[in-house]
Specification:
With 255 residues, the protein is α/β, with parallel strands linked by helices. The protein contains seven helices and ten strands. The chain has helices at 37-49, 57-65, 84-97, 129-137, 157-175, 191-199, 233-241, and strands spanning 13-18, 20-22, 34-36, 53-54, 74-81, 102-105, 141-144, 181-183, 204-210, 222-226. The strands form two sheets. Strands 1, 4, 5, 6, 7, 8, 9 and 10 form an eight-stranded parallel beta sheet that branches. Strands 2-3 form a two-stranded parallel ribbon. The radius of gyration is 17 Å and the shape is globular. The N and C termini lie far apart (41 Å).
C-alpha cells in the first residue's frame, strides 16, 4: 500500500462559507453575510454542470487527513449561524441538486435571533429546535458555533470552555447523536481555544482563514472560501479555481 498523500499534495478542496440565503437589499457592510437566493441557485447549478463533487464533511475529512480519495473539483458546503432562511431558501435548492451541507448552530439562541449582528433591525431569525430536527432527519449535518457567538479568545478560558463544551452537549441532546464538528465564531481563536476544542472531543474546526482546505496542517484549523453577496458566476468560479493560497482576512470576520 502506497504512502498517504499530505493534504497539500492532494487535489484542491474548497470549503465554501455561506451565511444567510434569501432576498436582500444590497448590503453596504458585511457582504459575506448574504447570498441572494437566485445567485445561490446559479452557483449550485454551476457545480452540477461542471462536474464538481460536493462532499459531505465527514467524507472530506477522511480524504484530507485519512486514507480516503479526494476527487478533483471537490467542494464542501457550510453555513454559519443556523438562519431560518437556510431552511426556507437554501435547503430546497440543495435537495434539488442532491448536495450535502453542514450548518453550524449557536446553541444558546435556537429559535431566537442573531443578537450579535450589528447590521439589521430586527435581527434575522434562527432556526428552532423542531426545524433543526426536521432537517437532521433529511440528512443535513450540524455542528457547533458556540453558545452565544462570542469571540472565544477574548472571553477568558473558563467562559471559552463553557461555550465549546456545553454547546456540544446541548446539540447532542437535541439531535440524539454525537456532534463532532466546530466552527470558530468570527473565525476567532488562539492556541488555547484550539486546545479546548480538541479537549471537548471535536474532530474538526473551521476558520475564516481564506484558501483551500488543503492548506490546513491539522483538522482543527481548516480554511474556507467566503461566498459574498457580490459574487457573480465569474467571481464564484475564480474562487473555486484560483483562490487556493492561505490568506488571513483583512477585516474582522462576522462569521
Amino acid at each position: 500500500m502506497g504512502e498517504l498523500l499530505s493534504p497539500v499534495a492532494k487535489p484542491k478542496l474548497s470549503v465554501l462559507m455561506y451565511h444567510q440565503v434569501g432576498m436582500f437589499e444590497s448590503p453596504r457592510r458585511h457582504r459575506a453575510c448574504y447570498c441572494d437566493v437566485r445567485r445561490f441557485r446559479q452557483q449550485m447549478s454551476y457545480l452540477k454542470r461542471f462536474g464538481y463533487r460536493v462532499l459531505d464533511l465527514e467524507e472530506a475529512l477522511q480524504a484530507l487527513f485519512g486514507d480516503g480519495i479526494l476527487p478533483p473539483r471537490s467542494v464542501v458546503l457550510t453555513f454559519d449561524d443556523g438562519y431560518r432562511n437556510f431552511r426556507e431558501h437554501a435547503f430546497p435548492i440543495l435537495l434539488h441538486f442532491g448536495f450535502p451541507a453542514t450548518v453550524y448552530l449557536v446553541s444558546g439562541l435556537l429559535g431566537g435571533r442573531a443578537e450579535w449582528l450589528d447590521v439589521e433591525n430586527p435581527k434575522p431569525s434562527l432556526m428552532t429546535p423542531e426545524e433543526i430536527r426536521e432537517l437532521h432527519r433529511e440528512g443535513v449535518r450540524f455542528g457547533s458555533h458556540g453558545i452565544t457567538h462570542s469571540r472565544l479568545s477574548c472571553i477568558g478560558p473558563e467562559a471559552a470552555r463553557e461555550e465549546i463544551f456545553a454547546s456540544r452537549q446541548t446539540l447532542e441532546d437535541l439531535l440524539g447523536e454525537a456532534v463532532e464538528h466546530f466552527c470558530y465564531p468570527y473565525g476567532d481563536y488562539d492556541d488555547d481555544v484550539r486546545r479546548l476544542v480538541h479537549d471537548a472531543g471535536y474532530r474538526s474546526a473551521l476558520t475564516c482563514i481564506r484558501g483551500a482546505a488543503n492548506e490546513a496542517d491539522n483538522p482543527l484549523e481548516i480554511p474556507r472560501k467566503a461566498i459574498s453577496y457580490g459574487d457573480n458566476l465569474v467571481g464564484y468560479a475564480w474562487k473555486l479555481h484560483m483562490k487556493h493560497a492561505r490568506k488571513f482576512a483583512s477585516r474582522p470576520a462576522v462569521s
